[in-house]
TrEMBL record:
Annotated organism of origin: Gymnopilus junonius
Name this polypeptide is given: F-box domain-containing protein
InterPro entries to which the protein is assigned, alphabetical: F-box_dom, LRR_dom_sf
SUPFAM superfamilies, per database record: RNI-like (SSF52047)
Residue ranges occupied by any F-box domain in the UniProt entry: 31-102
Upper taxonomic lineage: Eukaryota, Fungi, Dikarya, Basidiomycota, Agaricomycotina
């Protein structure tokens, strides 16, 4: 039998559906000649699609009556189990079919189906999602508590938990996490917690303490939609955590006291508040690859104290111009090869941006996005690749690996021809002869570019249209894109 790929299975099921729904359940149907384990694999690929294109459109009416597989896959195994007795038996006995469950806007109709869902999952690990509406009714709050009690009977099976609900449900979850942290057999890898009401400090502290002591936890997202919730407790994370997102602001000194032991951290997204002078030892996170920092004020103290030798992606939101020397020193001290750099830095002078483009720490960049800085002809010229790198020039060309470019605030003095010259020098291939006469690429080609200009000229519009046409007609160019917006 040929290998079971997603494409083969999709084609096979489509051919079966052409004969009508009854044919699928018929004993004479070709699909029913397959052994049970093969049918189970087909059902898994059908109900739990492996690519985003298979995810159905959000159906609020359908999801109000039944749990679904996840917030990104509004499928359920129940309809397929109603085709025939054999299919029902296969689906009910395939535990992996029931390992993920999502309940959105909980109501009483969800309870019985959730009990059934969990009974079919048996002892399989569970991925759980409960998302209340932004203004939950009394029924929604009551049902959420009932669902949490159902899931609480299977604490040892929790693998991932994602919740968005009010404080009463948060208090029950906190109690369950206390119980879970005491278990030596916890398998929970991910916790995504968003509370939509002001949370009392003792409740937040209790939940945070429990999460920090779950040895299996690899990912934590701690978020809120309420500005009033400004409390992030301080409990030191161990070396196991790999992904940490803190959307609630936390003081720089408190954060560094929390994370200094997280030597396995790979991804960090935080919102920081500057503090008065404090004394704290420097922090090195040797495995960190992705860093996203938002700030309500200065960030220099954070970058002065941190070293990230493996950093590949750096995104900074709302940084002051005065903090930039600390960022640069961190990059040089770390000795990292940053590939993605995204920054929002209002009112950065053009000559400073030119110096950024020429920095040695940015020459491995594949993505360069700057919002708020003044973009002039000089900036665009610094990004323009020369016609031939063998021709004499004063400085080596900058950012030879650049593939994605974003610039806002291209001012009124910017010349349309300078923009087009820069884009042309990056989008189209530049070839040079090698040492023995062979042709070689001297740089990467630009894949996407987004520019915001003061005035969008006809020449810019025509060039944008040309890139679009080339992307539609040229092989290997389908992912190319140029967007020029007028401010």
């Amino acid at each position: 039998m040929p290998s079971l790929t997603v494409g083969n299975i999709s084609t096979f099921l489509h051919s079966m559906r052409l004969g009508g729904f009854n044919l699928l359940g018929s004993k004479q149907a070709p699909i029913n000649r397959l052994p049970n384990n093969v049918l189970a694999e087909i059902f898994l690929y059908t109900i739990v699609p492996q690519d985003s294109h298979s995810v159905p459109v959000f159906d609020e009416k359908f999801m109000s009556s039944t749990p679904v597989i996840s917030g990104y896959n509004q499928n359920t195994p129940f309809p397929l189990s109603q085709v025939c007795r054999r299919w029902r038996s296969i689906i009910h006995n395939t535990k992996a079919m029931w390992k993920s469950i999502a309940i959105l806007n909980p109501n009483k109709r969800h309870v019985n189906r959730t009990e059934l869902w969990l009974s079919f999952a048996r002892n399989h690990e569970l991925d759980i999602m409960i998302l209340q509406s932004e203004s939950p009714s009394e029924e929604e709050i009551e049902v959420t508590l009932e669902l949490l009690h159902l899931f609480g009977k299977r604490l040892q099976q929790w693998a991932t938990v994602e919740v968005f609900f009010e404080s009463e449900a948060a208090r029950l979850l906190a109690a369950q996490l206390v119980e879970l942290r005491r278990s030596p057999h916890s398998i929970m890898r991910s916790a995504i917690i968003e509370i939509q009401e002001p949370m009392q400090a003792d409740l937040a502290d209790n939940m945070w303490r429990s999460l920090n002591r779950i040895d299996s936890l690899k990912e934590l997202v701690w978020a809120t939609q309420q500005e009033e919730i400004t409390f992030t407790p301080v409990h030191v994370f161990g070396p196991r955590i790999e992904i940490l997102h803190l959307a609630v602001p936390i003081r720089i000194d408190r954060f560094l006291n929390t994370v200094y032991a997280s030597l396995s951290l790979l991804e960090l997204r935080i919102t920081l508040e500057a503090t008065a002078t404090f004394s704290i030892l420097p922090v090195t996170l040797p495995q960190l690859e992705t860093l996203e920092v938002k700030s309500t004020n200065g960030l220099s103290a954070f970058f002065d104290l941190c070293t990230f030798p493996s950093l590949k992606s750096l995104e900074i939101d709302r940084i002051n111009v005065s903090d930039w020397p600390s960022v640069l020193w961190m990059l040089r001290r770390s000795g990292c090869q940053v590939q993605v750099f995204i920054v929002r830095l209002p009112h950065l002078p053009a000559h400073d941006l030119v110096s950024w483009i020429e920095l040695d720490v940015f020459q491995a960049l594949e993505t360069f996005v700057v919002a708020g800085a003044d973009v002039t002809n000089e900036v665009l010229s610094a990004l323009t690749w020369p016609l031939s790198i063998t021709q004499p020039f004063h400085k080596p060309p900058s950012m030879p690996k650049l593939r994605h470019l974003g610039l806002t605030h291209c001012g009124p003095t910017v010349d349309s021809d300078v923009i087009i010259r820069m884009l042309g020098s990056r989008f189209w291939p530049t070839l040079e002869r090698g040492i023995i006469g062979q042709i070689k690429k001297s740089r990467e080609e630009l894949v996407t570019a987004v520019l915001t200009v003061h005035t969008k000229t006809t020449a810019m519009t025509n060039y944008e249209e040309m890139i679009k046409n080339c992307a539609e007609r040229t092989r290997d160019w389908s992912d190319r894109s140029l967007i020029i917006r007028q401010a």
